[in-house]
Amino acid sequence: MLSMFYGYAFAFLTALIVIAGDVSLKHAADTGLPLNSRPAVLGALLYALSGVLWYFAMRHVTLAQGGVAYSMFTLLAICLIGATHFGEQIRAREVAGIGCALLSMVLLIRVQG
Questions:
Q1: How far is CA 70 from CA 12, 13, 27, 102, in A?
Q2: I need a labelling partner for 69 at 20 to 30 A (CA). Which of 29, 101, 105, 107 fits?
Q3: CA distance 70 to 72
């Protein structure tokens, strides 16, 4: 069970790092900075780091478990960022999507655990 925890923790860190890389690349693209600018290079380095973290996640969980966990963490983070930074409302459809993601995690844990 501890191994599964490590896998999900690495999947969570991977999602956070990818989102940080996305934000950095978005900043570079929106401001017209070249590909060799600090934000663009930082985004690429964060993506590379996410690949390393993903490797460690895959050592502890199946690809299906890791993929669903990564997707769920990304979904939650994007909803939170949208609501807090962009004033977007989380409506019933988003809540249902989050619920489905959480349910899929529960189902995968029970099948594999």
A1: 6, 9, 23, 11
A2: 29
A3: 5
Rounded CA gap, 80 and 76, in Å? 6
Give how far Cα 96 sits from Cα of 16, 37, 72, 77, 84, Å.
22, 39, 12, 15, 19
84-102 pLDDT per residue, tens = 877 889 999 989 988 887 8
Token couple for 79 = 């909803």
* Residue 54 · residue 48 · CB < 8 Å: no
Query: Is 74:82 a contact under the CB 8 Å cutoff?
Result: no
From CA 45, how far away is CA 76, in angstroms rounded?
23
Residue 64 pLDDT greater than 90, yes or no: no
pLDDT given at position 65: 85
Q: Is the pTM of this model over 0.85?
A: no
Residues 43 and 57: their CA atoms lie apart, in Å, by 21
Tell me the mean pLDDT in the region 74-83. Answer: 83
* Residue 59 contacts residue 9 (beta carbons within 8 Å): no
